[in-house]
Amino acid sequence: MKLIKFLKDWTLPVSMGMGTIVYLIFAFVPALESAAEVMEPVFNTILPLFMFLILFVTFCKVDFHKMLPVGWHLWVSIFNLLFVGIVMAIVLFFHFTGDKLVLMEALLMCIIAPTATAAAVVTQKLGGSLEEMTTYTFLSNFLTVLLVPVCFPLIEKSADISFMSAFTKIFYQVVTLLVVPMLLAYLVKHYWQSLHRKVVSVRDLSFYLWGCSLMIVTGTTVKNIVHAQATLLLLGSIAMLGLLLCVIQFAVGRFIGHFFCRAQEAGQGLGQKNTAFAIWMAYTYLTPLASVGPGCYILWQNIINSIEIWQERRRSAVEA
């Protein structure tokens, strides 16, 4: 029972730790090399399925009539645009190339990435508004759809993409992994109520599904860092600046949210990023090394999430 309680209380750190350990075992034990080659495409296939299920379960709990834009959505979006603009201005003004450009691209990926689909899960866990967070997740994703085709060709001259081709490709990803589970949840909620009751009756189901997906994403992140063709100085710089950026985005989001009594929601909206999506964009449109940025960011944001969940659990225990 103590072990189960420990796993429930520290799901995120345990998931990250397990993902790291499992990858390192398979990577550095020669006898498991063939098994690792077999399992890699399997994990790449089931990760989108986990994300789909997480969103489906989350949307089953959403009151769709309350999914409306509110004040903090606008201001968080403005600051997100401001941060993107600052990075773009620095790159274009100083004409960065080589490692400096890779560093700035890595940071850009941590800013331009949309709000994580799991942000609504964390917000609900912390007692925030599920509907407001879900609405902003949609807004953030469509903002990214517009920003990427404009920004990437400006900083990565080798990125042979047109606005419409990039827009269509990213829009397809957003619709597949965000809109489809929402529509399915809406149909189940209104036309298959027996299944809907079973889904919502399982407490924290989306949170534990997220824990499983986090284990896979962490393993993939460690793999990308281990195999990155870069100096330790560059990798360290990306990691440390990613940490600073993560803290800034969470802090600015919470600052904005205080004016609307939604500090938790705004903090998650600006700070918690869809790093898996960011890694895909880096590989598709920029240099693969830029994916190390969101790869490190996933560690920092989930440390912050773990601390927030621990504080909420402690506060609830005191009130009880």
Q: Please report the total strand number as a whole number.
A: 0
- The low-confidence parts are none
CATH topology-level fold name: Na+/H+ antiporter like fold
Global structural class: mainly alpha
Oligomeric state, counting identical vs distinct chains = single chain
The helicity comes to over 70%
> Which radius of gyration do the C-alpha atoms yield?
19 Å
Q: Name the shape in a single word.
A: globular
Give me the CATH architecture, please. Up-down Bundle
What does this structure look like?
There is one protein chain. The chain is mainly alpha-helical and 320 residues long. It has a single domain (2-319), classed as Up-down Bundle (Na+/H+ antiporter like fold), CATH 1.20.1530.20. Helix content is 82%, strand content 0%. It contains 14 helices and no strands. The mean pLDDT is 83.
Any key phrases for this structure?
320 residues; mainly alpha; Na+/H+ antiporter like fold; 14 helices; globular
Briefly say what this structure is.
The chain is mainly alpha-helical. The protein has helices spanning about 1-10, 10-30, 35-60, 70-95, 100-110, 120-125, 130-155, 165-190, 195-200, 205-225, 230-260, 265-270, 275-285, 290-320.
How is this fold's topology laid out?
Layout lengths: L1 H8 L1 H18 L4 H28 L10 H24 L3 H15 L6 H7 L4 H26 L7 H29 L1 H9 L3 H22 L5 H27 L4 H9 L3 H11 L6 H28 L1
